[in-house]
Amino acid sequence: MDPQQSSPVTLYEAVGGATYFESLVSDFYGRVETDALLRPLYPDDLRASVAHTALFLMQYWGGPGTYSERRGHPRLRMRHAPFVIGVTERDAWFNHMAAAVNDSDAIDEAKAMMLQYFDQAATAMINHVE
Ligand code: HEM
Questions:
Q1: DSSP 3-state assignment of 26?
Q2: How far does residue 10's CA lie from ligand 1's centre (Å)?
Q3: Number of H helices, E strands in the chain
Q4: Span 55-90, pLDDT tens digits
Q5: Sign (positive/negative) of CA torsion 39, 71, 127, 113?
Q6: Ligand 1 atom, smallest distance to 117 CA
């Protein structure tokens, strides 16, 4: 096969697939669990949040579409509307996710792509002016 013709690798594949995202999201929610600002926004039992967030990220980065099969169209801004998200909440959320990404074992290029996405997407979730 001509190497020039090889199919592009998705970020999902580049980081190692489902296992990577399960571990990233579990690390992230471990940080949320001890955050006095963010913890009250989430349900007492975090297991569904962990599962949905991991499935969403797998789908977003080119993996299987299980998230939408189970949850429908992501519509993330709408799903976050019930929670008051100001700059403070956004920054706390992003800092935990950035720490989880930086501590993970993905290649640097993949980490940079995820950090850029989380930075922009977290800002888009702001729905409250402080
Ligand atoms: C990059 C930005 C973000 C992404 C990709 C993201 C992703 C998600 C996903 C996929 C869910 C589950 C939706 C579902 O039920 O199917 C969720 C829930 C939630 N997110 Fe975010 N989120 C982001 C930013 C934020 C921010 C900034 C906050 C602020 C505190 C936040 C707070 C929450 C809360 C409280 C829930 C509800 C948990 C639940 O009911 O399970 N998220 N998020």
A1: helix
A2: 23
A3: 7, 0
A4: 999 999 999 999 999 999 999 999 999 999 999 999
A5: positive
A6: 1
